[in-house]
Amino acid sequence: MKKYLIILCSLCHYHSVWAQQGNYVLLQPNDGYKEIISKAAHVVPSPRQLRWQQLEITAFFHFGTNTFTGREWGTGKEDPKIFNPTALDANQWVQIAKDAGIKQVILTAKHHDGFCLWPTKTSKHSVAASPWKKGKGDVVKAVSRACKKYGIGFGIYLSPWDMNAAMYGSDAYNDFFVQQLTELLSNYGRIDEVWFDGANGEGLNGKKQVYDFDRWYKLIRELQPTATIAIMGPDVRWVGTETGYGRETEWSVVPTNNLNIASITEGSQKNLAFKPQGDMTGSDLGSRDKIINAKGLVWYPAETDVSIRPGWFFHEEENSKVKTPEKLLDIYFNSVGRNGVLLLNIPPDKEGLINDSDIAALKKWKQLRDNIFKKNFAKNAILESSNGINAGLILDNNDATHFTTTGNDTTAIIEIQLKTKATFNVLQLQENIRMGQRIEKFALEYWDGKTWIMAAQGTSIGFKRLLKFSTVKAVKLRLKILSSRLNPCLAEFGLYFMKV
What CA–CA distance (Å, rounded) separates 396 from 94? Predict the structure, then answer.
């Protein structure tokens, strides 16, 4: 295997002048077109970003005083005594998530109303002032322990906006926030993700808070260096909607306007933390047209969030409006299947349990996915490519190995001879993103005995691309890589069947 990796790295220009791979690169004014494309091809995820991407599906638990008032946004004036879940079971939450194939959960430790789900020393507006467990309860601890028990990741959401804090809108609030963040990052073991949004309303003094994000990033890197920081953060960006649907073409390498020599020299590759600035919600973020005029490029992948219900907090009247398993499956194809990570919100109810309606949808959704992906019809196929090497690695179920081309070829054709004629309508492709995101256009064709017929085609791939197409029966196919930034590094190929 070491021999394979050495060959692959050299063929992908790993040892070229710009192959010192990192998750950002500064573009110089005198860089030519080819040099910029080469630099873009060598931008790769950091270890924390790679781990996050491999999760594929994560969950949000929105829970707090809003659960008991029926609101989506509180006011900060809620009486803590309303918070009294009579049967709270964090093990149930996490087990249900894990059973659904979810690999990490994020808890709303504090929402905009300022109510803290842990007994913080910074405020009286917390579970310590509630009747739940006679003020001795700690939801953050309960969920963190459940995650450890079931072996999945644990993250926290801490709202920068706080409607309860009297000092919100002043410099003192940033110190207050750092104290809260320090408690969460110090007292609950490993934190895998810290999630911020950009909500920023007026405080009691009529002023909006100027958030000291740089200070917060530095603290997180110091106390939890393996944690990804999303969405108002340096590691993960918001896809731009709350529908669960990503872009048709989703590039993880995007332009940034605030990368400069000063920021690079002040930090190291390991600790540099800045939120990339630029268009992060447009329909085209990382095409050649976009990157060619950029000042810098950064690996900044998309998180695609959506709630299983119409609202983000639990509302009894929405029990009949839980998304169907079929809708969740379509969301999966258009989030995870479009080079994103799906963040699915599953809000516990007033008792402190995941509702039966949500559980039923999650179980059926998992069954639908299992039924589709239980058999790869390309397994054991005979693969050939006239200008490529190690084609067999695209069937080894390992996203760290890959097929690539010889010389400087940026296109390829992989001929695929199945063992027997198969029926399929789903294509799965993955790049080895440790080498960057490179493939820009591809097509799948099948031989009908007389001619080659198009089955599916697409643009970017990234960590994972899923395409549904009209059902095909064939024994001979070819995958055409039509455009790539330097040598393509295709990691996985799959053909599956979905009942329609």
Answer: 31
End-to-end CA separation in angstroms for the chain: 40
pLDDT at 264: 57
Note if the bond before 231 is cis, omega within 30 degrees. Answer: yes
Contact 256, 278 (CB under 8 A): yes
Radius of gyration of the chain from its Cα atoms, rounded to whole angstroms: 24
Closest CA to 484 of 447, 445, 432, 446: 432
Structure tokens at 267: 């930090």
> Does the predicted model carry a pTM greater than 0.90?
yes
**Taking residues 240-264, what's their average pLDDT?**
88
List, for residues 188-209, the tens digit of each pLDDT value: 999 999 999 988 988 778 888 9
Q: Which residues contact 369 (CB under 8 A, 6 or more apart)?
A: 101, 329, 332
- pLDDT over 60 at 13, yes or no: no
Pseudo-torsion of CA 22, 27, 33, 38, nearest 10°? -10
> Apex CA 231: angle with CA 41 and CA 186, to 5°?
110
CB atoms within 10 A of CB 250: 25
Distance of alpha carbon 472 from the chain centroid: 31
Three-state DSSP state, 392: helix
List, as one string, the DSSP characters of 407-471. Answer: TT---EEEEEEEEEEEEEEEEEEEE-GGG---EEEEEEEEE-SSSEEEEEEES--TT-EEEEEEE
CA angle 455, 436, 237 (to 5 degrees): 90
The helix/strand/coil state of 24 is: strand
Q: Is a pLDDT exceeding 50 seen at residue 18?
A: no
Torsion of CA 304, 310, 314, 317, to 10 degrees: -170
Distance between CA atoms of residues 24 and 256, nearest Å: 9
Give the pair of three-digit tokens for residue 286. 């990382």
The pLDDT-based confidence of 2 (bands split at 50, 70, 90) is: very low
pLDDT of 121 higher than 70: yes
Determine phi and psi for 9, rounding to 5 degrees: -65, -40
Measured distance CA(390)–CA(228) in Å, rounded: 33
Cβ-Cβ contacts under 8 Å for 64 (sequence gap 6 or more): 74, 83, 108, 110, 111, 113, 115, 117, 313
